[in-house]
Amino acid sequence: DRRRFLALTHSFLLRDTGIFIHVSSASERTMRQILILPVTVLALSAPIAHASKPRVAVLGVQTSGIDPASAPLLTEVLTVEIDRLGRFRVVAGSDVQAMLGFEKQKDLLGCNDAACIAEIGGALGVEKIVVSHIGLLGSTYVVNIKLIDIQKVETQARVYESVKGEMDNLLGSIRASVHTLFANAEPAPLPAAVTV
User: Fold this and answer.
1) Cα–Cα separations (whole angstroms), residue 141 to 28, 33, 124, 171
2) pTM tops 0.70, yes or no
3) Which residue, of 33, 120, 140, 173, has the fewest CB within 10 Å?
4) What is the pLDDT of residues 173-196, one digit of tens each?
């Protein structure tokens, strides 16, 4: 019975790509030949595509006028929104802490300029770092996010947003700010050639 079951049903799981293929029925051999080639190509190309993405570190959100206990959650929201862009390998949270070590984390507390942050980026082995500050003035949240290019040691793009109201509005503002930040970071297109 077990042999018959195995002959009728086969499952293939590719862990790295998250693809699950289930093949059953009498035409199993033909289906397997049709499916194996594209799946193999996909499995081999996924690590290459992943490796070609630049690495970006998301440092913890600095806050003022907001309950400090909300900073890790705000950092997580920011991290997820950057990861959703699908353009970067994102390093954040406990990964950053583990990679930096205690001494570098102490240095990070007084680190505000691009050169200092670039040094931290070098220690993390990333191409870019996202630094952010969210404050509350009266009933208005102020969101300030910077993207720092480690190789050029300069701020590549920055976004400043203000939003009134509840924390829900702030979360929407973070999402919009991430899209604006990375849109601003795109190089300007070259002007079209003029023919005479």
Assistant:
1) 59, 57, 30, 10
2) no
3) 33
4) 999 999 999 998 876 554 554 454
Token pair for residue 8? 């009728």
Q: If we measure between CA atoms, which residue out of 106, 120, 170 comes closest to residue 148?
A: 120
* Tokens coding 9: 């049903």
**162: helix, coil or strand?**
strand
Q: Which residues of the chain have pLDDT under 50?
A: 2-49, 190, 193-194, 196
177 closest CA partner among 149, 147, 153, 150: 147
What is the distance of C-alpha 67 from the center of its chain? Answer: 25
Q: How far is residue 112's CA from residue 92's CA, in Å, rounded to a whole number?
A: 18
CA end-to-end distance (rounded Å), the chain: 80
Q: Which two tokens stand for residue 164?
A: 């009134």
Q: What single DSSP character describes residue 27?
A: T
| SS3 of residue 191 by DSSP | coil
